[in-house]
Amino acid sequence: MRHFGHIPATARAGLFHREPCEFGADSPARVLAAALGATLYSPATRPRLADDVMKQVRRGVVSMVLCLEDSIDDGDVAGAEENLVRQFADLGRRDGEPPLLFIRVRTAEQISDLVRRLGPSARLLSGFVLPKFTEERGGPFMEALAEAENSCGRRLFAMPVLESPELLHLETRRETLAGIGRIVDKYRDRVLALRLGVTDFCSAYGLRRSPDMTAYDVQIVAHVIADVVNVLGRSDGTGFTITGPVWEYFRLQERIFKPQLRRSPFMEQRADELRTALIEHDLDGLLREIELDRANGLLGKTCIHPSHVLPVHALSVVSHEEFSDAQDILRPERNGGGVLRSAYTNKMNEVRPHRAWAERTLQRAEVFGVAREDVGFVELLAAGLVK
């Protein structure tokens, strides 16, 4: 699979200076962590789940989470597990490659039990999403994952969700973060990415952000995100990929503030129509949040609606300017440091301070590609909407 692999090769060639690479469930962890992109969540109770999964592949989805936790009623868990086993068996009989598939469990015991019940179709499973992850809860989860991996004979990843009240509350945050750091470092080879449960953070204080506001406008949430990145997202080799929080909105809502999406990138008629559609579906707030995710050290995003996937992927493509700067900074002859003017002659590139940014940019370029010099977000989004 590859990002934008659902559009014709001729269209990709017209969009990309360097096309996204191909990857699969057996690719190196560093590639998969960067390539997760918009991870689409789906309740495990859906009766035509196998059809839904393959439909989303045709729309450009590369990673999905099939949820047994908050998205379903407590009384539906047993039925949802049975449904998952049936749907995985169905997927195993189909042609075509499914996306990276993860199951969000409630308890550690579910991990080994589900892998056993999946049988041969466990080969389609990439791992598990672990809710309300702390040092205390994390140990049993990670041990169960190792046991399940041994029983099915394939690599399984963990994606812990950081959403516990202990992490949110100021008086316990430092200790909780340190504990999470210890457990994920112990099982570093099994942890693909860390996910942020911002909805649970808001719930602890009875808050819910409107579609006019990003997670970063809710200060109590913004402070937690900053602290998580500070401790667990460092670029010195000790950090992990941390994914962006869920965007909850996908229906028309009454506006309070002026639209945040500028008109300047939308000059052509089709692009102007696309801008209008984005605003009407409250996606301009999503676009702003995606940009803020990356500015704050996050990569990828939790998504609960298919309409969110393409904006996340389009904004993850590396611009030609970013690529040019990153390449200049990382040239071997620059190892001694120094400052240089960018090839675009609009900024300073300082080799040592910008090196970590450049390395992350080239990693993103590998999986999402590099846009041609005259191609921007609108062109990428419009191309991705091909039926």
TrEMBL record:
Binding site for Mg(2+): E171, D200
Alphabetized GO MF terms: catalytic activity; magnesium ion binding
Key word Magnesium present: yes
Single biological process term from Gene Ontology: oxaloacetate metabolic process
InterPro entries: C-C_Bond_Lyase-like (IPR039480), Citrate_lyase_beta/mcl1/mcl2 (IPR011206), Pyrv/PenolPyrv_kinase-like_dom (IPR015813), Pyrv_kinase-like_dom_sf (IPR040442)
Cofactors required: Mg(2+)
Keyword Lyase in annotation: no
Keywords from the UniProt entry: Magnesium, Metal-binding
Domain of life, source organism: Bacteria
PANTHER family hit by this protein: CITRATE LYASE SUBUNIT BETA, LYASE BETA SUBUNIT, PUTATIVE (AFU_ORTHOLOGUE AFUA_4G13030)-RELATED
Protein name per the record: ATP/GTP-binding protein
Species the sequence originates in: Streptomyces lavendofoliae
